[in-house]
Each structure stands twice: as structure tokens, then as C-alpha cells.
Write a structure and sequence with these properties.
By secondary structure, this protein is an alpha/beta fold. The chain contains 29 helices and twelve strands. Strands 5-12-11-6-10-7-9-8 form an eight-stranded mixed β-sheet, with helices on both faces. A four-stranded antiparallel β-sheet has the order 2-3-1-4, covered by helices on one side. Helix 19 packs across helix 20. The longest helix has 75 residues. The radius of gyration is 62 Å and the shape is flat. The protein starts with 11 loop residues before the first helix and ends with a helix.
Length: 737
């Protein structure tokens, strides 16, 4: 798939047109700036400049020979890599305390006898590091050459003196700070040692490393014993289980039976019970259950059973039911029962041994698992003790060194060149000031032009008009520059021109003829007869375009009727110098006949003025009477041109547009703004009008670099003796008569 690349279209012609279009205010700003710069250069008086030099050392070598602390106190460093220590010291040299001391030493006073402010002195001071060196150049400009040299020398001496005092002050501040910190650091050392001692006592720590080794050995030994005991326990458990299967008794039952079988009272009672049961069995063969002997034997048997159970309970220490058959054991079963009891005793002993070993192993493991944490805690506390002790030793050493550095009298800067009295004035910068004024004026010219252009919301060129409306441009009417005459008063000054009649061989006349030709080519099969001419806002020249278009059509031999449909602000009667006593509004309401209202202004061209302005023009224009009038006019004339009000202001044009063959929209760059244009286009689209196209009126040729008027100038020659607007009046009057 082919990739599409979008590039930004930089319209340099557009920017150039903006600069040309706003030349007047921008030119005034340019002239003002250049004038001010020239005046400043001319009134500038000559100054003398004196210069001296200071040499800086990054380290105070004299102090470093005595103590290490003295070297650190006098050291020059910067916070970032972009600057040098000399840059920082340059700002220190320009500080208010040094400037104030220099002013007082030179006794610089104003007219009132007061010391001049530091800001006034700083105007003449210049401080510049010499590139690639540690040298700082100090300059001062003054109208007095001696004062310039004295100011530089005094300023450098004041800085060197302050630098020495600053170094000594740093040593004093360091000593006082260390003296305050020593007791605190010593207290920190003692607290760290006490914390370490307390930690060892709380956790029973003597030697954690040896304790860890011993714990591992102990766990290994216990594991061996535990393995042996667990094996023996498994063997005893297996033997006990085997015996239990043989005698069908549990371990507890075997113990209980063994104890009961060895009891004399239990055995005697058991023998008596067995005798009674044997006798009862014998007697039941002889007597019924209700026989007194049987009842007596049953009671005796029950009593013996209860007694037997009681004695078993006394023997075993708890009430456990035991069957009579289990109380009498044979020799084999007796031997197995004894083995089961012995095996169970052995198993319980081994079980206790395993439990004890497991507990011991858990205890050792728990201690062994805690040892790393205890070691970490102990090491942390030991490090705190070591850090506190190291800090105390460093502070104690620095305290002794700072005491020595405090008594030194050295600095980081020294004067390597004092200023001499200048014999010649400083470089004359008048040309530079004027050049800067020209550059600044040019920049402000551009800024002013663009600001004025941004403040003007109107569309400036035909290109901008086309981009908003997206309609076909049928004609572009250049601006008419002929001066208006005022001999008829104020009203005569606002009458639009008729170049098609007054200057038939001009470029403007040809543009109207081109417009009517384009209208003809729009529909060659069905010619357009009724055309509504409107605009978005007022003052775009729709009435002028209507009148000149009608004139151009009439000059071609077509019968044309020009209707002034603007019943709000009619102007066609002024253009053609007609009376407006009777017109379109009077014809619609039936007060005047059409033949009486229509006036002939030239061959093939009739004009129907607006007539009396009604209170509700839309009610008249949107009536059935108006529809029938347009139908009659279209039959009687080849073309009917209707001049209507602006679209954005009133809906009259939209109503008349539905009765016509199409709407011709007049736009004028410099008058129409983008918001009004968008609104007008929206109204036209919503109402479903047949838009014939655009007529761009009042085009300034210089503002249209992509128009064809530049080539048309070489072809057409405007007549220098064009007819005056008054001739139109005379012609009309003669034809009327």
C-alpha cells in the first residue's frame, strides 16, 4: 500500500500580503522605534572605561600548608558543571555590601548630598571572566576618567578585603559549630554503646558465631537419635498390632483384662456366677420361667453380674463393661495378653522419647533460625557504635585544625592589575544603537501587522472566501478606486458606481460581462431568467453587482428588468437617480400599476424600485401576488435581476430564492467575516436554494497574488476620460422626457 505523507503548507505569499495590507500602522511603529533609537544615539554622551583584573585560586594554598581544614574553608566550588567559581565570585563582587562600601570610600553623592544608591553605581560596572583563565576583569564607565579608575581599584580592594574576612568568618563559624556538636556526638557514642550492650543482654548473646556452630551439631545428634527412636517405635507398633489381631483385643482391653484376671475377688465372683448360670440352665430344663426356683436363680445371677462389674470397676479404677468370657483367659491367650501389655508399654516409652527429641530439635532449630537476625541486629548496632566513634574522632580533629585556621589572614583572590586612568573614550555605539533600533522596528512592524490582521475577523482574500463557501466562483470584481463626488451632498457620496456604463472598456466592465457569460454557460439548455442577488451581510456590494450585471446583459441586447427587492434599505433608485414614490411594494398591494412603477433607465433595461418601505416586508415578498408578478416578469423579459437584503439579517432573500431560477451570492473580502459566511452558507443549505455561484466583489488586486488581474492589466487600458456619474443622470432624464 502506498504511504501518504502530509506536509505543512507554508503560504509565504499570505504572510507577505498581511505585511503589505497593514503597512500604515506597522510603518508608523517602525518609524517611531527607529526615531527613538536615533535620538537615543545622538544624545548619548561619551564615557570613559577603566579596567582592572583579579586572579582567583580554587584552593587556598597558604592555608592548605598548615591544616587540611584551612584548605577546605578557602576552597571555591560550583554547584553545577555549567558555571565556574569565577562566575559565582563575579556576582559576589556585585553584591550590595561591597558596592555600598565602594560608594562610601569614593564619597559618591548626589545633588542633595546623599550617597548615590547602589543601583546607580551598578549601571557603570562591568564584570567579565576571561575565558580559559581564573582571571576576572572589572570595568567601570564614567564621564570622569579618574573616577572610572578609582571606582575599579576601590571595588577590587573592597572585594579582596571582604574575601579575607569571609574566610576568617567561615573558620569561626566552623569552630563554633564543631564545639556545639562535640558533646552531642559524644552522647551519641555512649547511647550506641549502651544500646549494643542492652541488646546482647536481652537476647542472651555471648558469641553468636560459636552458638550457631553448636546448634548445628546438636541438631545433627538429635536427628540421629530421633531416627533410631522412630524406627523402634514403628517396630513396637507393628508387634502390638499383630498381637491385637490374634487375641482380638485392643491394647487397652488387654491391659484391662490382664488386671481383671489377676484379681482374686473378680475370679471368685466369676466362678460363683458361672455356677449359678450352670444351675439356671439345668433347672430351666425342669421348670418354667415362672417357677420360684427359676426366678430366684435369675435374681441371683443378676446380682452376681452386678457384683462382678463392680469389682472389675474397682480393679481397673473405672467402670468398663467386660464380658465374662474375656475374664477367663487360657494360657496362650494369657501369654499373648501379657506380651501385648509389655509391647504397649514399650511403644508408649518410645513415643515419649520421640516427642522429647522432637521438642529438643525444635528448640535448637528455633534458636538457630533466630541467630541470623540477632547477628544482623548486633552488626547494625556495632556499625552505629563505629560510625559514632568515627564522627567523634573527625570532629575532634577538625576542631583542633579550625582553631589554627581561624588565626590566618589569607584569601582566594588578589589584584594582578590595577586600573589606570583611561585617555580615550570608550567605543562609540551610536551605529549599533541605530542598527538595533532598525532591527527592533522591523520586528515590531511584523508583530503589529499580524496583530492588526488577527484583530480583524473579516475574510481578506478571494481564496479564503472560496475555502469557506465551497461554491463556484462565477466572477471576481476588482475594487473600484474612482473617487466619489460630493457636489450633491452626503447622499451623492454613497451612490455605488456603474463602471459598465461609465467605463465600458475598463477591466471592471469586462469582469461583469464575464459574469453574465458564466451565468449563461451554467444552463445552456434552459437559460436562467430570474436571478436573485444577495449577500451575507451589508456593504458587500450586492446592489452594485445587481445594477452592473443588469447593465451588462442589457448592452448585449437582452431585455432586462432590475427589481429592488430590498424593502428594508433600498438603493437602486439612488443608483439610477429615480424617485421611489411608487415601486414593488405598491404594486404588490395593488396601489400602483406595474407599468407606472417600472422605469426605463437605458436601452433594454428597466428598473422597478422598492417603493414605500412596508412595516413587514417579508409578508409582501412571500405572498402569492409576488409569485405571480415574477411569473409575469419572466415572460415579458429575458432576464429578471432581483436585488435582495443580506441573508444573515433578514429571510427575504431565502423566500425570493425559491421563486427564482437560482441565487447569486455576492461576497466582499475585508467586509465579510468567517462567522457570518458560515451562517449564510448554513441558511442556504437548510432552505434548499439553487446556488448559482459566488461573485467576489471589491477584490484588491495587490492582495490576490493568484488572480488573473495581474495579466489583465497588460491587456486592458482604462480610459482616462471615463464618464462621470452625473452623465447617467442626464441620460436617464433625457430618455424619461
Amino acid at each position: 500500500m502506498e504511504s501518504t505523507q502530509y506536509t505543512e503548507d507554508i503560504d509565504l505569499k499570505k504572510y507577505w500580503l498581511i505585511l503589505r495590507r497593514r503597512w500604515l500602522p506597522s510603518g508608523l511603529v517602525f518609524v517611531l522605534v527607529v526615531t527613538l533609537a536615533t535620538a537615543a544615539a545622538l544624545i548619548k554622551k561619551p564615557n570613559y572605561e577603566a579596567a582592572g583584573r583579579l586572579l582567583f585560586k580554587k584552593k587556598n594554598t597558604t592555608s592548605s600548608l598548615v591544616t587540611e581544614a584551612g584548605e577546605k574553608i578557602g576552597q571555591l566550588d560550583t554547584l553545577n558543571m555549567m558555571n565556574t567559581p569565577v562566575d559565582t565570585e563575579a556576582q559576589v563582587l556585585l553584591s550590595v555590601p561591597i558596592i555600598q562600601k565602594t560608594i562610601e570610600s569614593l564619597n559618591l553623592k548626589d545633588a542633595q548630598g546623599n550617597f548615590i544608591p547602589p543601583a546607580a553605581f551598578l549601571v557603570g560596572v562591568g564584570v567579565k571572566p576571561i575565558k580559559g583563565t581564573d582571571v576576572l576583569q572589572v570595568t567601570y564607565k564614567s564621564r570622569d576618567p579618574k573616577q572610572a579608575a578609582d571606582a575599579v581599584n576601590q571595588l577590587m580592594n573592597a572585594y579582596v578585603e571582604m574575601n579575607i574576612l569571609t574566610n576568617r568568618a567561615e573558620a569561626v563559624s566552623a569552630r563554633e559549630f564543631i564545639a556545639k556538636q562535640l558533646p552531642k556526638v559524644l552522647s551519641t557514642v555512649r547511647e550506641a554503646e549502651a544500646a549494643l550492650r542492652k541488646y546482647r543482654e536481652q537476647n542472651n548473646i555471648v558469641a553468636l558465631q560459636q552458638e550457631a556452630i553448636m546448634a548445628v551439631d546438636a541438631i545433627t545428634g538429635i536427628d540421629r537419635q530421633l531416627t533410631t527412636a522412630q524406627a523402634q517405635l514403628a517396630d513396637a507398633t507393628a508387634r502390638a498390632s499383630e498381637i491385637q489381631k490374634k487375641i482380638n483385643l485392643t491394647s487397652q482391653e488387654a491391659v484391662n483384662l490382664s488386671s481383671a484376671s489377676q484379681s482374686t475377688g473378680v475370679q471368685q465372683t466369676l466362678e460363683e456366677l458361672q455356677k449359678v448360670e450352670a444351675q439356671l440352665t439345668l433347672e430351666r430344663t425342669r421348670f418354667q420361667e415362672t417357677h420360684p426356683l427359676i426366678i430366684d436363680l435369675v435374681d441371683k445371677r443378676n446380682s452376681l453380674k452386678a457384683l462382678l462389674q463392680q469389682r472389675v470397676g474397682e480393679t481397673l479404677g473405672k467402670d468398663i463393661p467386660v464380658s465374662n468370657g474375656n475374664l477367663q483367659l487360657g494360657d496362650v491367650k494369657q501369654k499373648l495378653t501379657e506380651d501385648l501389655v509389655a509391647t504397649e508399654a514399650e511403644r508408649l516409652g518410645l513415643l515419649n522419647q520421640v516427642t522429647s527429641l522432637s521438642r529438643a530439635r525444635s528448640a535448637y532449630q528455633q534458636r538457630a533460625s533466630v541467630i541470623p537476625k540477632l547477628q544482623q541486629g548486633e552488626k547494625d548496632l556495632e556499625r552505629q557504635v563505629e560510625a559514632a566513634q568515627a564522627s567523634y574522632q573527625i570532629l575532634l580533629k577538625n576542631y583542633q585544625e579550625v582553631q589554627i585556621a581561624e588565626n590566618q589572614n589569607v584569601g582566594n583572590a588578589r589584584v594582578i592589575e590595577y586600573a589606570s586612568i583611561p585617555g580615550m573614550p570608550a567605543d562609540d555605539k551610536k551605529k549599533l544603537i541605530i542598527a538595533a533600533g532598525i532591527v527592533a522596528g522591523a520586528m515590531l512592524y511584523v508583530v503589529t501587522a499580524f496583530l492588526f490582521d488577527l484583530a480583524d475577523p473579516s475574510l481578506k482574500t478571494a481564496k479564503e472566501v472560496r475555502e469557506i463557501f465551497k461554491y463556484t466562483v462565477l466572477g471576481m470584481i476588482p475594487s473600484f478606486k474612482k473617487k466619489m463626488r460630493f457636489r450633491f451632498g452626503k447622499q451623492d457620496a454613497i451612490v455605488p458606481p456603474l463602471p459598465v456604463q461609465d467605463s465600458p472598456h475598463s477591466i471592471i466592465s469586462e469582469t461583469y460581462r464575464m459574469l453574465q457569460a458564466n451565468l449563461k454557460f451554467l444552463s445552456p439548455d434552459r437559460p436562467l431568467k430570474v436571478i436573485v442577488v444577495t449577500s451575507s451581510v451589508s456593504k458587500e456590494g450586492k446592489s452594485t453587482v445587481s445594477a452592473n450585471l443588469a447593465t451588462a446583459m442589457a448592452q448585449l441586447g437582452r431585455r432586462v428588468l432590475l427589481i429592488d427587492g430590498d424593502l428594508h434599505h433600498p438603493i437602486q433608485h439612488h443608483i439610477w437617480d429615480l424617485t421611489n414614490a411608487a415601486g414593488l411594494s405598491d404594486v404588490i398591494v395593488g396601489q400602483t400599476d406595474v407599468k407606472t412603477a417600472v422605469k426605463s433607465v437605458m436601452d433594454n433595461l428597466d428598473v422597478l424600485p422598492s417603493g414605500v418601505i412596508p412595516p413587514n416586508p417579508l409578508a409582501l415578498l412571500d405572498s402569492q401576488r409576488m409569485t405571480s408578478l415574477i411569473a409575469d416578469f419572466s415572460r415579458d423579459y429575458n432576464f429578471v435581476i432581483i436585488d435582495t437584503p443580506p441573508l444573515v439579517l433578514v429571510p427575504d432573500a431565502l423566500s425570493l430564492g425559491k421563486m427564482s431560477d437560482g441565487v447569486l451570492v455576492v461576497v466582499r473580502p475585508g467586509v465579510l467575516d468567517a462567522v457570518s459566511a458560515a451562517a449564510a452558507k448554513s441558511f442556504l443549505m437548510q432552505s434548499g436554494q439553487n446556488i448559482l455561484g459566488l461573485v467576489v466583489n471589491g477584490v484588491i488586486i495587490e492582495n490576490e497574488p493568484d488572480s488573473y488581474f495581474h495579466h489583465a492589466r497588460a491587456y486592458y487600458q482604462e480610459s482616462t476620460t471615463s464618464k462621470a456619474p452625473a452623465s447617467r443622470t442626464e441620460n436617464v432624464s433625457s430618455r424619461s422626457s
